[in-house]
Design brief:
It contains 18 helices and 14 strands. It is of the alpha+beta class. The protein has one domain: Orthogonal Bundle (Cytochrome p450), CATH 1.10.630. The strands form 5 sheets. Strands 1-2-10-7-3 form a 5-stranded mixed sheet, with helices on both faces. The longest helix is centred in the middle third of the chain and has 32 residues, at about 255-285.
């Protein structure tokens, strides 16, 4: 066993601070320091439960594959302060979660709830959606072509393209998409004063609980109407599956149904939006990457994976140990809380050569952005297919590409990515 390394407070705060991810380099600099000096180490900060930061690719994999030993549901699944956790538990009657989605579930419930919708996201089933997705992609490229050679790629393409796809699958009508987008941005952008509901600046690891309650209530109210409609008149959409879902022969309750809708309606597009924008950001920052994909369209699937790795929209999940164990020579005690640092694992020098460079020729690309083990992202195949189709439609028409101004990223230590991306381009 190795001695437990001490993480300087400034490194720990750089990891948990939403602003670090908006500025990008502070987070990656902190992770580089951790990988070199304290790859698995415990943090003690005032007002926060002690927790381990897991910064190495191999250790994140090791923890992610042991779902009985490292669970999601017993402690908060996303980072929070002690005060934040206590407030949530007071509101929920003891649960650390405002929602109960697949993300917060462990065995045996996790597998039972996952299988309810899993068929919708299998590669052989989503292939049937390809023509419709391609039509949506082509419409977005046509829209981009009509913008006069300059646009904000986030606002004009990346946000609305995957939103349209997942809402069509879910069964949300087009006129309600702006509402779903706004609620998603408020939920995942809770620490960003430009995106959150109140416009307030959050502290590290803090959030406005009243805002989050109101956002979740708005989601629940909307999807209660969807549920009632699909129970009365079942359709061929995913909402019908959720509304009429059963576990062990009994109908799922409203709270779990609403939670299911929320995870599909938010994670189902937001992370794909971030990765899609990240691909264009990367090709602007590294013109050789644009030239490579332009010259060889067979690189588009690799471009997709590299964008997902480079952006890593999901920044962390927390796990808690159910028994005393050892990882990478460190003794982990029962009840210990662990921060799985996906952006760090995805820039681990032992796994990725020149990890900070955006390289669509990278092979292999064993990134961790979709997680691993039982919690492997349910929608990973759909996300990659959406991105592939969009760039298959865009790249043959795109003759030049460059920044038209500075891009910005969301202040978010949980889920986030590009917030603005002004680009200048020639398109046929």
């Amino acid at each position: 066993m190795t001695d437990t390394a001490v993480i300087p407070n400034e490194i720990a705060y750089a990891v948990i601070a939403p602003k670090s991810y908006a500025e990008d380099e502070p987070a990656h600099a902190a992770f580089r320091w951790l990988r070199q000096n304290a790859p698995l180490a415990k943090v003690s900060l005032d007002g926060i439960y002690p927790f381990w930061i897991v910064s190495k690719h191999a250790d994140i994999l090791e923890i992610s594959r042991q779902n009985d030993l490292f669970r999601s549901g017993e402690m908060p699944t996303t980072f929070t302060t002690i005060a934040g956790d206590e407030m949530v538990r007071k509101l929920t009657g003891g649960s650390p979660h405002l929602l109960r989605t697949l993300v917060q579930m462990d065995a045996p419930d996790h597998a039972k709830y996952r299988v309810m919708t899993q068929a919708w996201f299998l590669p052989q089933n989503i292939r049937g959606l390809e023509d419709r997705i391609r039509a949506i992609a082509r419409a977005h490229v046509d829209h981009m072509a009509g913008l006069g050679g300059e646009c904000d790629f986030v606002k004009d393409v990346a946000l609305t393209y995957p939103l349209r796809v997942i809402m069509e699958i879910l069964g949300v009508p087009p006129e309600d998409e702006p509402r779903m987008l706004k609620l998603t941005q408020e939920l995942f952008g809770a620490a960003d004063p430009e995106l959150n509901r109140s416009g307030a600046k959050a502290g590290d690891g803090e959030f406005n609980l009243g805002d989050l309650q109101a956002i979740i209530a708005d989601f629940f109210m909307y999807f209660k109407g969807i549920t009632d409609a699909r129970k009365a008149n079942p359709g061929s959409d995913l909402a019908t599956v959720i509304a009429n879902g059963t576990i062990d022969g009994a109908a799922i309750n409203d709270f779990e149904a609403m939670s299911y809708y929320v995870i599909v309606a938010t994670a189902g597009h937001d992370t794909t939006s971030s990765s899609t924008a990240g691909a264009v950001w990367g090709m602007c920052q590294y013109p050789e990457a644009f030239a490579a994909v332009k010259a060889d369209p067979s690189l588009i699937p690799a471009l997709v994976d590299e964008a997902i790795r480079w952006v890593t929209p999901v920044k962390h999940f927390m796990r808690s140990a159910t028994a005393d164990t050892e990882i990478a020579g460190q003794k982990i005690a029962k009840g210990d809380w662990l921060w799985l640092a996906y952006p760090s694992g995805n820039r681990d020098e032992e796994v990725f050569e020149t990890p900070d460079v955006f390289d669509p020729t990278r092979a292999p690309n064993r990134h961790l952005a979709f997680g691993y083990g039982a919690h492997l992202c349910l929608g990973q195949h759909l996300a990659k297919m959406e991105m592939r189709i969009l760039f298959e439609e865009l790249m043959p028409r795109l003759e030049s590409l460059e920044f038209a101004g500075p891009g910005t990223r969301a202040e978010a230590a949980f889920v986030g990515g590009p917030k603005r991306l002004p680009i200048r381009y020639r398109i046929s």
